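input
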Amino acid sequence: MNLLDQLKQQTVVVADTGDFESMIKYKPQDATTNPSLIFAASTNPQYKSLTDEAINFARSKSNIKSKQVEIAMDKLAVNFGLEILKIVPGRVSTEVDARLSFDTEGTINKARELIAFYGDAGIDKERILIKIASTWEGIRAAEVLEKEGIHCNLTLLFSLAQAVACAESGITLISPFVGRILDWHKKNSNLGDIQPAEDPGVISVTNIYNYYKKFNYNTLVMGASFRNIGEITELSGCDLLTISPSLLDELEKKEGLLPQKLIVEQAKVSDVKLLNLDEKGFRWMMNEDAMATEKLSEGIRNFTKDLLKLESQITSLIG
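output
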């Protein structure tokens, strides 16, 4: 049995892509998207109809160009989500505008609008995860949304502080990043080639998983942002893993035994201490973690860059 088939027996496999053909090929349970993936996919001629429909919809809702662009951007993200839901049996994550990352009320309102678009298309909100950056403001917005029955996926998560704040706020799912943590350490610590078990991103997600399971939090852990399959196999047993098509292909082609690394029973006896974080504690822990602070800010900036590219494209098409 190949590694991908074995991984699916231990972990919910999620496709990290905007490409429908990849989802059909690898048959993931769920799928995630982000502004970068949506922008890349929207430039593909085969998805032109989704863009055209979003623009026509926006024109029908407003005569003001700036509002048309905003509506079209949201509708395009939902259109991709709707197509994805025809392929995957589970849920799709749709991201809130990264420029709202420090705006609690703005994030809440945008999430409600996205859920309304899905509802108009006949999709139950149980099949949607609203993806929000793991800032303090984003976590507060997600807490409100969860109480309304709108499930959230907190992304750009690099630290235990962010993970604890999410769990205490009753968030459905978090996406702790692995590869970007490794990137930072390679750049800032002169970290050379290391074994997957020593990868700082793998260690971070393992610690978060153990913390959640030890203290019986319901929030699910979905490892994300992988650089190699070694990072993935070291996290086998994680609640979910979201994986790019290239790494899914590598896993599918590789044979061998895949032992489960993350196990609830082992997490229960792990040596971790309970943290109770208020806003001051959260901000202090983030301030003391240069990697998490820098990667969170960088991730928001990069998602915004791709949003602006997409916005420019939509603006030109609206004319």
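quick obs: The chain has a mean pLDDT of 95.
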